[in-house]
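Margin note from the TA: students keep mixing up input and output lines. Inputs are the sequences; the output is the structure of the whole complex. Example:
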Amino acid sequence: MPRIFQRAKKPGLSPGTLIHVGERKVDKPRISFIDYDETQFQEKGVKTIEECFPFKDTPTVTWINITGIHEVDIIEKLGKHFDLHPLILEDIVNTEQRPKMEDFGNYIFIVLKMLYFNEKENEINSEQVSLVLGSNFVISFQESIGDVFEPVRERIRKGKGRIRKTGSDYLAYALVDTIVDNYFIILEKFGERIEEAQEELVKMPTPETLQAIHKLKREMIFLRKSVWPLREVVSGLDRAETPLIHEATGIFLRDVYDHTIQVIDTIENSRDMLSGMLDIYLSSISNRMNEVMKVLTIFAAIFIPLTFIAGVYGMNFAFMPELAWRWGYPVVLTVMVLVAVVLLFYFRRKKWL
Amino acid sequence: MPRIFQRAKKPGLSPGTLIHVGERKVDKPRISFIDYDETQFQEKGVKTIEECFPFKDTPTVTWINITGIHEVDIIEKLGKHFDLHPLILEDIVNTEQRPKMEDFGNYIFIVLKMLYFNEKENEINSEQVSLVLGSNFVISFQESIGDVFEPVRERIRKGKGRIRKTGSDYLAYALVDTIVDNYFIILEKFGERIEEAQEELVKMPTPETLQAIHKLKREMIFLRKSVWPLREVVSGLDRAETPLIHEATGIFLRDVYDHTIQVIDTIENSRDMLSGMLDIYLSSISNRMNEVMKVLTIFAAIFIPLTFIAGVYGMNFAFMPELAWRWGYPVVLTVMVLVAVVLLFYFRRKKWL
Amino acid sequence: MPRIFQRAKKPGLSPGTLIHVGERKVDKPRISFIDYDETQFQEKGVKTIEECFPFKDTPTVTWINITGIHEVDIIEKLGKHFDLHPLILEDIVNTEQRPKMEDFGNYIFIVLKMLYFNEKENEINSEQVSLVLGSNFVISFQESIGDVFEPVRERIRKGKGRIRKTGSDYLAYALVDTIVDNYFIILEKFGERIEEAQEELVKMPTPETLQAIHKLKREMIFLRKSVWPLREVVSGLDRAETPLIHEATGIFLRDVYDHTIQVIDTIENSRDMLSGMLDIYLSSISNRMNEVMKVLTIFAAIFIPLTFIAGVYGMNFAFMPELAWRWGYPVVLTVMVLVAVVLLFYFRRKKWL
Amino acid sequence: MPRIFQRAKKPGLSPGTLIHVGERKVDKPRISFIDYDETQFQEKGVKTIEECFPFKDTPTVTWINITGIHEVDIIEKLGKHFDLHPLILEDIVNTEQRPKMEDFGNYIFIVLKMLYFNEKENEINSEQVSLVLGSNFVISFQESIGDVFEPVRERIRKGKGRIRKTGSDYLAYALVDTIVDNYFIILEKFGERIEEAQEELVKMPTPETLQAIHKLKREMIFLRKSVWPLREVVSGLDRAETPLIHEATGIFLRDVYDHTIQVIDTIENSRDMLSGMLDIYLSSISNRMNEVMKVLTIFAAIFIPLTFIAGVYGMNFAFMPELAWRWGYPVVLTVMVLVAVVLLFYFRRKKWL
Amino acid sequence: MPRIFQRAKKPGLSPGTLIHVGERKVDKPRISFIDYDETQFQEKGVKTIEECFPFKDTPTVTWINITGIHEVDIIEKLGKHFDLHPLILEDIVNTEQRPKMEDFGNYIFIVLKMLYFNEKENEINSEQVSLVLGSNFVISFQESIGDVFEPVRERIRKGKGRIRKTGSDYLAYALVDTIVDNYFIILEKFGERIEEAQEELVKMPTPETLQAIHKLKREMIFLRKSVWPLREVVSGLDRAETPLIHEATGIFLRDVYDHTIQVIDTIENSRDMLSGMLDIYLSSISNRMNEVMKVLTIFAAIFIPLTFIAGVYGMNFAFMPELAWRWGYPVVLTVMVLVAVVLLFYFRRKKWL
C-alpha cells in the first residue's frame, strides 16, 4: 500500500543535521556526470564526488546526477563545495518532503515526487527527486536507479532540440517536464484500473470490488498528496524573479504548468468517479438483499398457508365431517392449488416475479 | 462512454515534437480558406496549405480552417510560415489539451472543446478546436467535419452584422461564441435526459435507472472538465493587454463570459440534481424492501400461530379430551378465525395494511 | 416544477439578433410612463413607445415600464432611440439571463429575477426584470403584469420619502430594493413549507414526504441560481465608478446588499436543513424495517419451536410411550407455555418488546 | 425551535420606514443612562428619552441603554437628536438583521446577536443588540431585560480596569467583548448536550436520539448564522480608518477577534461531530437489524428441518416400515438432536452465536 | 477523550484579569533559567521569578522557562517587569487559546499547542505552550513537566549548531521547530492506529471498530483544531516586519512552515481515510446482513415446501388412495429429495451457495 502517513524524525535536532529518512533503495550511490555547451559534450561515470568539483566554475552547463541518497557524507561534501544551505541538504536526504521550490538567490532548490507503477503489487509507488539549479549547473538526486532521465541524456548527447543551445535552467525544466510527463502514464494506468473496477461493479460486485475501490481511493489520496503541491512549484519557478531562469524558458514552464493542472484535474475527477462507484456498490448490495428477501417471501407466503390447510385436516378430532367425504381430499388439493395460483398472481402483479 | 482519463504521450520527448495524440476522425485533412474585408470577400477550398501563405501579410482578414490534424507536416509547414511556437503546434495535434488561452505577443493561441451529442450512443462527445488569432488572420483547427462554423461563414458571405466591418479579433470572438452557444444545446439535451431519468425514478426505479444516473454523472464530470477552464480562457481574452484585441470587442467577450458562467452554473446545478436523484434511488430500494418485509411478516405472523394450533390437535395422545367433544372441531376453527382477525386488526393499526 | 436547465437559442447567430426566448406571458406589451422631479409629476399609459421619446432629454426623471417583451420591434425602437447596445437588447428579450450588471458608460444595464409563489402549483416561479439606468431615466422591462412596483409608483405619486427629491439612480435602487424585499416573502413561504415537511417527517414519513423534500431541494437550487449572482450585481452597483450613481445612494445600495446576503444565508441554511431531513427520512425507513423484522422474528421464534413439539407428538410411531401416558397431553401443553414464556422473557430483555 | 427562516416585512416600503419586526419581549421600553470620565460618574434611570439629550455634547462618555425596541417613536426621537441615518433606525427595530458594522463617519453602527440558553425549552435563543458608537457616546439597544451588561456597569461604577480612563470606543469594545464572552457559555452548554447525545448514542440509541441530534444540528445552523458574520464585524472595527476608534483599542479588538475565531472554530467542529454522530446512529440501526435477523435465522434454520422430520413421520401411509420399529421413535429423536447440534455448531463457526 | 468544546470563563470581566482556565497539571510552578551568548553560558534553577529579572537588560540571550501556570502572581510579576500587555498575561493562563502570534512592537507573543500521546488512554492530549520573544530574551510557559525542550537545552549547553551564535529569535525558532517536529511523532502514532483500525475493518469489523473509527475522527478534529492555526502563526513570524526577527532566521521559519503544511496535509488525508473507512464499515454490515438473509432464505425455501408435502400426507381424510399404495411412502420421499435438489441447484445458479 502506498504510505499516506509520514515517518517522523527525532524532534529537537539541530536544523541541518543530515539523517537519511526513508528506505535504502540502492546499495551504493552512483554519480553520473554530464558537461556540455552548444559545441562540446562530455559524459562520464565518476567514482568520488570530488571529481565533479572542478566543473563548478566552468561556463559550460554541468549536470551531476546522484542516485542513492543514504550516504550522507557525499551530500555533505557536495553541499560544502557548492555552498548549499544545510536545510537543503537535510531535505535532500529526508524522503518525506512535500514537493516544493525555494529560491536561495544564487541557486534554486526543487523537490519533486517521481511516480512509478509497481506491477507486482499492482499499485503506485513514489520516490523523491531533488534538483539544485545554479547559474551553470544542475544537481539532481534520485532514490533509486531508473531510466526516466535517459531521454533527456539522449537529447543532450545527440544535440536534439534546443537543449544544447540553452542554459542550466532549460535542463532543469527538461527534467521537471520529464517527471510530469511520466505522471500521465501513471494516470493512464490508474484510469484503466478504475475502468476495470467499474466494469466489475456493473457485472458482479463482490466485497473484493469494494476493497479494490478503497485501494484506488487510497492511491488517489496518495497521488493528490504528491501532485497538488507541484502546481505551486511550477508556477513559482515561472514567477520567480531570478536571473537563474531566462525569460525564454518561461513559456516552457507555463507548458509544464498546464500539464500539472491537467494531472490535478484528472485526479480530482477520479475522486468523483470513485465516490460514485461506492454509491453504486452500496446500492447493489441493497438490491441483492431485495432479491433475496423476495425469494424468501414468495416461498414462505405461498407454502405457509398451504401447510396450514394440510395441518387442519391432520387434526384428530372425532367429529370432522370433511374427513369422511368422498371428495374431501381432491377438493382440499384443489383449494391448495387455487390459493397458490392466487398468490403467484398477486406477486406477479407486484412485479416480484 | 466519454473518456475521463487522459491518454499519455511518451515522456521525455523534446518539447515541440509533433505527435498526434487522439483518434483519427477524418481521412484526409481539409483546408478551407476565406479572405475578406468590408468591401471584398473571397472563399475557396485549397489543396495544399502553401496556397494560403501569400495572404498572411495582406491587410484583409484571412481565416484558414483546417479539419483533421493527424497530418503533422501540414501543421508544421503552417507553423513555420506563420512563425508559431513549437509548443503551440504540439498542443494543436495533441487532442488531450485542457481549454486554455496563451498570449504570445504577436498572436494569441486558444484551445477549446467542441461538444456534440452522439444520438447513437446517447452520450456527449467532444472534439478539440484550436484557434490562432493574429493581427489580420485567424487559423482554426478542428478534428472532424462539422457544420458548426457554417453560420459564421454565412454571416461573412452575406456581410450580415458587424463581422465584415471588424478585424480578426471579432472573427475569433464569433467562433468562440458559436462554440459556447452550442453548449446550450448540449445542456438542453442533457437536462432532458436528467428529467427523463427523474421521471423513471419517481415511477418505477430499476437498477437500470441507477446505471443511467451514473452515466449522467460521468458525463457531468466530463462536461465540467471541458467547460470549467473556459471561464479563465474567455476572461483572459477580455483582460489581455494586447493590441490584437480591440476595445470594442471587449463587450462581446464579456457577453461570451456571461454565457460561460451560465453554462457552468447549469452544470453545477445538474450535479446537485444528480446527487439528489441518487438519494431518492437508494431510499426507494429501502422502501421496497420494507414492502417485501411487511408482506412476509403478515403472512408468517398470521399463519404460523394457526398452523401451531392445528399441530396441537394433530398430536396422537391417547387422552386428549377435546378431540372427542362434539363441537371441538368447529370451536377450534372459530378460534383460528378469531386469531387471524385479531392479527389483521393489529397490522392494520400498525398501518402495515 | 421550476426549470433548472436552460433553453438554448440557435447557435452561430450574429450577436445582437433579437429573438424572444421564453414563454409569452402577456398578450400585448403594455407601456406605462412616469415623469417627475421634486416639484412636478406626470403619469400616463402610452400606446406606442414613440410617445415616450421626447422625455429622454428633459432634466426630469423619466420612468418607462414595459410589460411583455415578446414584441421585439418595440424593444428595437427603444434601443435605437436611447442608443442601447444591441447585446443589451438581446439580453432583454432572452429570459434565460443570469442576474448581472454592466456599466456602459452613459447607462447601466441590470438584469434581475423576480420571484413569486405560485399557489396553484405550490411552487416558486420566476420572471426576468431588466433595468436600464440613464442619467435622467430608468427603463424597466417585466415579463408579466404584476403589481410589485406599485408601492414605488405610489411613493412617487404621493411624494413620500426621498424619492421625488433624488435622481434616477435612487429610482433604480428603489426598484431593486422592492424586488429583494419580495424575496423575503418567498423565503418565508419556503421556510413554512420546509417546516411542514419537517413536521410530517417526525410524525409519519411516507414516500410522498421524500418527494416533497426533493421538490423543495429542487426549488432551493432554483432559488440559489436566481439569487446568488445578485450579490455581485448589487456590490457592483455600489462600487461602480460612474457619475450615474450619486454618493448618497451608496448607503442605500449597501442596505440592499445586506438584504441580499441575508437572503443567500437563508438559502444556504435551507440547504443544510433539507439534507438533514433526508438523513432523517432514510433512518426512519430503516427504523420501520427494524420494527417489521422484530415482529416477524418474535412470531416466528415463538411459534416455530412450539409447532415442532406438536409435530413430534403427531408422529405415528407404534412405540411412543408418552402418547399413552395419562398426563402426556397436559404436560406437553405446559411445556409449550413454558417455552413461550421463556422466549417472551428473552425478547423483553433484548428490549424488542 | 430556534427560527432559521426570516420573517418578511412588507416589500416596497420607503427605506427608513420604522416598523418593528420581531416579538415584543418587554412591556415598556426602559432607558438607563450612565455618564462618566476618569474623575466623575453619574448613573440614573430616565423616563423620557429627552432627558438624555443634553449629554450628547459634553466631553464625558455617555452610555444610553434602551431595553425594548417596539416603541418606534423613542427610536425616532433619539435618531433625530443624534442625527442617525434613517436606515440605521430601520435596522434597529427590525430584529431580523444579520450581524454587521457600518461606518457613517461621525458614528459607527454595530448589530450583534446576543445568545442565551433557554433552560425550559432546552434550546438556544437569540436577541438582537444594536450599538451606536459616537465620539463621546455609546447607545445600545436590547430586546429584553437581561443582566449581561451588568458587569460592565459594575466596572464603570467601581472604576475597575481601564474603562474609566478611556473613551467611548473602549466602552463599545467592552460591550462587544461581553457579548462574545457570553457565547463561550452557550457553547459550553451546547458541547455538553452534544456529549450527552453521544453517550446515549453509544449506550442505547433510540429514534429520540436522532431527534436530539437533528435538533442540535438545527441549533448549530442557527448559531453559525448568528456568529459567522461577527468575524467581519470585529475585523471591520479593527481595520476601520476612523478617528472614533483609538489605536490603543486595536489590541483589544484583536483579542475579541481571536475569541470570535475560537467560537467559529468550535461551531465548525460541532458540525463535524454531529455529522459523525448521524453516521453512528445509522450504522447502529443496521447493526441491530443484523442482530434481529440472526435470531430469526437461527430459530428458523434449526426448527424448520426438525419440524420437517416430524412431519415425515406424521404421514399416514399404510406402509412406513420405520413406524413399526421398536427403536424408531428414539432414533428419530436422536437424529433431531444431532441435526440441531450440527446447525448450532455451524452458526457458532459463523460467529452468529 | 480529547475535549473539543471550550471551557468558558466568566463573561464581562475586565480584560487582563488573570484567571487560570484549565487543569492544574503540576503542583508548584518550576522556573528554569538559561543565559548565553557565543562565548559564555549559564544555567540554573531559580526559586523566585525575581532572580531572573536582572538579566532582562544584559546583551546575552536569556531564556526563562516556566512550567505550571496556575500561580497567577508569578505571571503577573513577570509581566510587570518585562512590560507585557495584560491581555497577553490573560492568554498565558487561559489554556483554551487558539494558536496565534501577535507582534507587540518590542516583543512578539506566540501561543502553540504541544501534543503528546497518552499511552494509557490510547489518545492524543495537548498542552498549551506560550512564548514571548524579546530582543534578547525568550520566556516560555508550559503546563506540565516534559522533556520536549531538553534537546534544545542540550544544544545550547554543548554549543552545537548555530544556536549559541545567533540571537533570541533563533532560540524561539528552535522551540517552535521542536514542537512541530514533535507533531510528526504524534501523526506517525496516529497513522499506525488508523492502519490498525483499517486492518480490523478488512478482517472482521465489529461495532467496536466503528467506535474506534469514531474516536480517531474525533481526535482528527482535535488535531486539526490544534494545528491549522499554526500555519498562520509561522507564516506570520516569517512575514512580520519586525527588527526582532533577523533576516537569516527567515529561511529556518520557512522550513518550519513547510513542516506545518506537511502536518496539515497529513491530517486532511487522514480525514479522507477515515471517511472511507466508515463507508467500508457500513457496507460490511450490509454485506453480513445479506449473508444472514441468504442462509435464512435457503433453509426456509427448501424445508417449507417439504414440510408442506409431509403435511399433505399427514391429513386424515378417509379416502386418500396414495396412503394405501405400497410404494407411496418411498415415492413421496423421492419427490422430496428431488424438490430439495432442484432448489439447491436453483440457489447455486443464483450464486447464493
